[in-house]
Amino acid sequence: MKNFVVTDFKTTGPSPAQGDRPFEVALVRVEAGKLIDRCESLLKIDRPISRDLLRISGVSEAELRQAPPAAKVMHVVADWIGQTPLVAHKWGFDGAFLK
């Protein structure tokens, strides 16, 4: 596979089925073994994030308040990925949040 997109999500917890939500998404596009583009954004969500998680992630509450709505970001992400194959360290985790 020469062309692919690598995904990474920072989330409020492990399970979108239990209400956890992504608050940051980062993707990189690789073509012929070279990183050629990136797409990253914070997401405004309707769920509190623990202070410990904010500290670990390096994201502030103020940054999240100014972030674009999650639905808007995820539409951009879906368009950016298009039909490109996806790669993730833990696809079960990232794939659940991408859906």
Protein described:
- The protein has 99 residues and is of the alpha+beta class.
- It is built from 4 helices and 4 strands.
- The chain has a 4-stranded mixed β-sheet with strand order 3-2-1-4.
- The longest helix is centred in the C-terminal third of the chain and has 12 residues.
- It is globular and about 40 Å long.
- The model has no long low-confidence stretch (mean pLDDT 94).
List keywords for this structure.
99 residues; alpha+beta; 4 helices; 4 strands
Head-to-tail CA distance between termini: 23 Å
How many extended strands? 4
Unreliable sequence segments = none
Average pLDDT, rounded to a whole number, is 94
Walk me through the topology.
Elements: E1 3-11, E2 22-31, E3 34-42, H1 51-57, H2 61-66, H3 70-81, E4 86-87, H4 91-98
Parallel strand pairs: 1-4
Antiparallel strand pairs: 1-2, 2-3
